[in-house]
Amino acid sequence: MTCVQKPSSIVKKAVMGLTGLVLFGFIVGHLIGNLLIYAGPEALNGYALTLRHLGELLWVARIVLLAAVGAHILTAMSLVRENRRARPTPYQFQDTIQTTYAARTMAVSGLVVLAYIIYHLLHFTFRVTNPHLSHLTDANGHHDVYRMVVFSFQNPWICASYIFALTLLCMHLNHGLASAAQSLGANNQKWEPRFKKAGCIISLIIYLGYISIPIAIYTGIIKAVPGGHL
Ligand code: HEM
């Protein structure tokens, strides 16, 4: 069956792809920064301090990120509404059932990731879920991000909730990368499976990188170092 797309859906898919790419860039950059925890407190706290010293540039990056999240969600909602209106009832084609299943999975994982990001900001950025985390300072008197992360992931419930959300984030990423490749024209028999495989490997590497942090802390591979002040 040939499927003619409306110009508005092509624009919406381009917005999804572009905003998805911005968010993907942040997820990779944030992972690289967070992995500095393996290099010790000086490395992670120094990195956090460098980011804070970016001043206005950091705010520009935050605004771009927030705009990308907003546009990604609003465009996704609009595409879901559009697909729902165009859907033949009852389901006649296997393709339609599969597309609807994938869209539903994306909507559910997307909502969980959104809830996770809100919780994560309340936890590590605004520190309202545990206000004591704001009082942790390192030997130089700066906020001790290293000990904040280590103390947090010594709690099994925090570890479990992060691992759960990161699992859904990486499932979302896996499907998102496959759809982005398809929108970019890799929808032929030769390239589609290759792009899908690459997307799967990239999502898996990101997943393992992120979940390694709570696991390493909970199992005691990464420990809180003495020093600093609470
Ligand atoms: C094990 C996983 C993660 C760890 C340990 C972690 C750690 C952190 C820490 C320590 C901060 C605060 C930095 C500071 O105040 O100096 C932070 C901020 C943030 N994290 Fe994460 N993060 C994780 C996963 C994620 C994921 C998967 C996302 C996105 C989907 C994310 C999005 C953010 C955002 C948006 C901020 C606020 C950045 C800002 O200050 O503008 N984080 N994270």
Mean pLDDT comes to 88
Radius of gyration: 20 Å
SSE sequence, one letter per element:
HHHHHHH
The biggest beta sheet is recorded as: none
What is the number of helices? 7
Low confidence ranges? none
Q: Would you report the number of β strands? A: 0
> What ligands does this structure carry?
protoporphyrin IX containing FE
Terminal Cα span: 65 Å
Secondary structure class reads mainly alpha
State the assembly state of the protein chains: single chain
In percent terms, what proportion of residues is strand?
A: under 5%
Whole-number total of structural domains: 1
* Anisotropy-based shape: elongated
How much helical structure, as a percent, in the residues? over 70%
Description of the structure:
This protein is mostly helical and about 230 residues long. It has helices spanning about 5-35, 40-55, 55-85, 95-125, 145-155, 155-185, 190-220. It is elongated, with a radius of gyration of 20 Å. The mean pLDDT is about 90. It binds protoporphyrin IX containing FE (HEM). Protoporphyrin IX containing FE binds next to α1, α4, α5, α6 and α7.
